[in-house]
Amino acid sequence: MCGMGGMSSSKSKGSSMGGMKCGGMMMGGMGGGSHDANHDMSMEKNPEAYKTTKRYCTQCHYLKEKNTHNSSEWNPTLMRMYTYMQNQDLMVPSEDEKVLISKYYEVTN
Q1: Is residue 11 in a domain?
Q2: Is 1 domain-assigned?
Q3: Are 36 and 64 in contact (CB under 8 A)?
Q4: Does any domain span residue 69?
Q5: What's the rounded Cα separation, in Å, for the pair 108 and 13?
Q6: 9 and 18 in contact (C-beta within 8 Å)?
Q7: Taking a C-beta distance cutoff of 8 angstroms, is the pair 47, 40 a contact?
Q8: Domain of 52?
Q9: Per-residue pLDDT for the chain (109 aa), expressed as one digit of tens each?
Q10: What is the pTM of this model?
Q11: How many domains does the structure of the chain reveal?
Q12: Do 3 and 31 touch, CB atoms closer than 8 A?
């Protein structure tokens, strides 16, 4: 099961609150990225980008490591995930938040 049972989903532009649900595409995670509970924020170059990325990307799966894809592969992956979030009525990042997520994954176009 993905997300928080009993909470309603909220589709918003930039909202950091709301329920979580998964439509089945990425059921491998635990929503919330609990695997990194001891994450050392002092190691992050951009803590705001990390927090924003975690907020959106852990709605259905653990936060992916930056080296999961090379920098040029992240852009199409993120575009696909934004579409997925919208189609599943999940929280969708604002344009400014998308910039932060791209910075976190060091995306190149």
Answers
A1: no
A2: no
A3: no
A4: yes
A5: 24
A6: yes
A7: no
A8: 47-104
A9: 344 333 333 444 443 334 445 654 444 444 444 456 567 777 788 999 999 999 999 999 999 998 999 988 999 999 999 999 999 999 999 999 999 999 999 987 6
A10: 0.67
A11: 1
A12: yes
